[in-house]
Amino acid sequence: MNADALFAHLATGAGHVCQAWAITRRDGVTLGFTDHDRPLRFEGITFMADSGLSARALATVAGLAADNSEAVGLLQADVVTEADIVAGRYDGAAVRNWLVRWDDVAQRQLRFRGRIGEIVRQAGTFRVDLRGLTDLLNQPSGRTYLRSCDAVLGDARCGVRTDDPLVMTTAPVLAQDAGQSIEVAAGQHPDRWFEQGVMTVLTGQGAGLVVAIKHDLLQGGRRRLTLWDALPSPLAIGDTLRLVAGCDRRAETCRVKFANLANFRGFPTMPGEDWLMSVPRSTGTNDGGSLSS
Which residues form the Bacteriophage phiJL001 Gp84 C-terminal domain (predicted)? Predict the structure, then answer.
């Protein structure tokens, strides 16, 4: 990548330049687009010229404010499909933008790196909000002082292995109704084991989808799962699902269900609001001791 040569070319006043965009989706698929009239190829990516994708001017500012831009395109069956957008495959996708000399792609400059924010679909088109890397600095961080655990089941702070058969299972779809309920084999886990857990679709049209489980009930040798949200892509009988146990973040659940109390990241003995509102009373024993005793 030779940015100096690109700048020298632009200084001639007759620049042969265009824009190129690369989008890497959550499932690892990378798509390339360009506003040039012919495809370009560099960094192992083919940038398609007939994608119908265009972008507004990139706004950059000094300091820690987020770079921002917007891309607009057409929904096409062989490129960006409505089904993939609904399935969430573009949510948070990584985005890169280059200014490229189209007759010598080695002369290019990376102008933007970020991720996709809000996506709006309307009348066969889509519009995406592009957020720069500094946008991550606007996200809240740090620990929360609560009775419940603030770790996520399976992360480094929690320590529970979500690939442990005692915690998770894989099972094919046996039935699905028109709503948000799915039936799989009962398996070895007890009733409500996967309640508040996570379901990942491993095979079929909806492969890669991740949804939260609302209810998990054993009924007649089968496990009936009710989801918080309807799946954006339909499942077929036989599609394989991965189910990970649910955790309500209570200390008792951490101890009994996962035998992981040593890694509990909450504060179960913190005083409650009743203690904070305690005041001396004339009928009490006012000896200077704790009001909670």
Answer: 192-274
162 located within any domain: no
pLDDT-derived band at 189 (thresholds 50, 70, 90) equals very high
Model pTM score? 0.63
**Residue found by looking up tokens 């398609």 in the block:** 48
* pLDDT tens string 104-120: 888 988 888 888 887 87
CA angle 224, 228, 230 (to 5 degrees): 85
Q: Both 11 and 132 in a single domain?
A: yes
∠ Cα 236 240 241 (to 5°): 105
User: Radius of gyration of the chain from Cα atoms?
Assistant: 26
Give the number of other CB atoms < 10 A from CB of residue 264: 20
Q: Residue 99 class from Cβ within 10 Å (0-12 exposed, 13-18 middle, 19+ buried)?
A: buried
- Domain contains 236: yes
**Residues 131, 180: one domain?**
no
Both 224 and 111 in one domain: the answer is no
Cα–Cα distance measured from residue 157 to residue 159, given in angstroms and rounded to the nearest whole number: 6
Pick from 49, 61, 130, 64: which is nearest to 97 by CA?
130
pLDDT in tens, 10-34: 888 777 888 888 989 888 889 888 8
Same-domain status, 23 and 117: yes
Tell me if 274 is assigned to some domain: no
